[in-house]
């Protein structure tokens, strides 16, 4: 039976591991630092609109995780951490009595990062890469604890093979996720779904900016419009989200203890004092595509620059403002 080895005990990894374990689907969580200690001692503290549960998910660090031939790796680290994690895992042994040479790179790996970069990083080492766009309102501000502001479904995923296609492994994953209360569908063209997600994620760092709500909303609209133009020029037409809502299911946000709106994963990184933010893989992906296809991206480049420099200076959310971003874009 497939076991999902979830690498990265943050918001997405904790939520996914808890839901799979609650559905009695084999799962092993790979954690490090304080998360490892807390989950090993107390389980995952999983809060959703129905309440809080301690979920006793099996957990270990990489050295303590013995891979088996039926394992599927699930990468739930941030995009800027993915290449390192893939490199750490690819050449680890798999304990397969039928094949003494088996390595992790022979196992399927599901990559869940926002942005468009992880698939190529994974394909550099792994032969079978499953790629997904994931919608999940998950917040983790303390080690081992996650609040997900939706139930049934807790998340919505579009999953296919990278770079394209679909197969029985994707179908099996979709079925397991559905058993775990997560809506999912398989697609033979996952890239448009990743592109659609990126249109929203170019706004993640806007939550870190000072200014009025109106100013932030206007900037977000313009960032998304600029991103859409670039994606279309690059031949990456975003998928139609309304179609998926209809056919697969949609997230319904409900009041949930420990979850506050307007705190997407970049905000959570800064609030936790993380050592890096994902902006170079979100706004930076649009900037990269713009440079490759000769499309100007002044707003995405300005946001990436202003937030990157503010993070490097160790500033708190709200220190740099919408006006700072507009001033850099106008230069
Ligand atoms: N949060 C959401 O609601 C949400 C929704 C949709 C998509 N996403 C996307 O999903 C991805 C994951 O986001 P997230 O919010 O779950 O990030 P996160 O909370 O920062 O979690 C990432 C976790 O991975 C751990 N990690 C990093 N490298 C590792 C390694 N080599 N080995 C073991 N653990 C490692 C990190 O540990 P350290 O803290 O020690 O670095 C952290 O606990 C991102 O691409 C994000 O954009 C997030």
UniProtKB/TrEMBL annotation:
Coiled-coil segments on the chain, per record: none
Entry protein name: 2-dehydropantoate 2-reductase/thiosulfate/3-mercaptopyruvate sulfurtransferase
Keywords: NADP, Oxidoreductase, Pyruvate, Transferase
Keyword Chloroplast belongs to the record: no
Protein's UniProt keywords contain Transferase: yes
Record-annotated Ketopantoate reductase N-terminal domain positions: 5-150
Pfam families assigned to the protein according to its UniProt record, in alphabetical order: ApbA, ApbA_C
UniProt domain Ketopantoate reductase C-terminal: residue ranges: 193-308
Gene Ontology molecular function terms on file: 2-dehydropantoate 2-reductase activity; NADP binding; transferase activity
Protein family per UniProt: Belongs to the ketopantoate reductase family.
Signal peptide residue numbers: none
Superkingdom of source: Bacteria
A cellular component annotation (GO) from this entry: cytoplasm
